[in-house]
Amino acid sequence: MQQTQIRSTIRRSLLLCVGLFIMAFGVAFSIKAGLGTSPISSLPYVVSQFTPLSVGTATIVMHIVLILLQILLLRRQYDPVQLLQLPVALVFGVLTDFSVWALRGITVGTYPAQWLLCVVGILLVGIGVSFEVTANVVTLAGEGMVLAVCKAFRVKFANAKVGFDVTLVLIACLLSLVFLHQLSGVREGTVAAAIFVGLTAKQVNRPMKRFAQRYLL
User: In angstroms, rounded to a whole number, what is the distance separating the alpha carbons of residues 110 and 95?
Assistant: First the structure.
């Protein structure tokens, strides 16, 4: 039984890493599209525009702040297992920088081409999220923050998720206007990502459930 659990944990961890890799490329494609990143990536992207930090490093910093906020919110109710969000954040940040570097040669010259890259980014992020959920090892700090808010204030997950995303986008817009004197990283693609990443993940979750029953139990 113990060996079975170990194999299951290893497989789930590998699936999580694959999901993070796919999500990272989704973020990179969204950045290349230039139509705005997803809500969760909008703040790190904007910060990377007026600081020496890369997008990946800014993502790591944001995740650390979110982990600290979870601890402050939940205090004694905080599950120490959720500290695993930290190594996950480190891996995701490094993969994000690698993905941005890997796509550095891609250029787009037309609006339809921008949307093509944006759609690819949305699909990849949605697929990556589905892999992460199916792996069921540990949540990313963003989702962990939403769950912490739900637990601390007894609000529905959907409402907390919308509030969290809107807050990140508003902060990104404010910082962008103050430091860059224009909106950067928040455009029509951000709205599209907010709507379709979740829908994509739901569609991919169906075959992934069958995959989990066959290979991850």
Answer: 28
